[in-house]
Design goal:
With 143 residues, the chain is an alpha+beta fold. The chain contains four helices and four strands; from the N terminus they run H-E-H-E-E-H-H-E.
């Protein structure tokens, strides 16, 4: 298995995502790898860690996800690999739920998102985004 962290989707990936914008609810699993040091285009905040730069983005984008009908479902630091093998772990996992692909696209195209995107770029070395569908099934009561 070849794994390549990226900052942006390829044209084919974006076209596939845009193909059915009204597809029902989706959850995006984000596997995040941070830069050691933030890299802002203007050279500002040179002493800031990538994790801290991304935290600026995460705080603001969480509000935008909610404003577009979604929710942050989970966010946590990766502590270790329980099963399998890989060269390097991601630093953090986040899962966001959107009512549709269109809601996510609308958020990404909003001026508010464009204003905060610089922090994502400064903080991330790369990531994987995994779209899931049918992820909102009720959990059976365990009692």
């Amino acid at each position: 298995m070849n794994v390549v962290n990226q900052l942006h989707p390829t044209g084919d990936q974006m076209a596939g995502f845009s193909a059915q914008p009204s597809l029902g609810p989706i959850c995006m699993v984000n596997l995040l790898k941070f830069r050691d040091t933030a890299e802002y285009p203007d050279g500002s905040d040179a002493d800031l860690s990538g994790r801290d730069a991304y935290a600026r983005y995460a705080e603001a984008v969480t509000r935008l996800v909610v404003d577009h009908g979604g929710a942050l479902v989970f966010s946590g630091d990766v502590s270790r690999l329980m099963l399998g093998d890989m060269d390097e772990l991601w630093d953090q996992v986040a899962i966001a739920r959107y009512p549709s692909r269109q809601a996510m696209l609308d958020m990404m195209m909003s001026p508010q998102y464009q204003a905060i995107h610089v922090h994502r770029e400064a903080g991330l070395a790369g990531q994987l985004n995994i779209e899931t569908i049918n992820a909102l099934l009720p959990v059976a009561d365990q009692h």
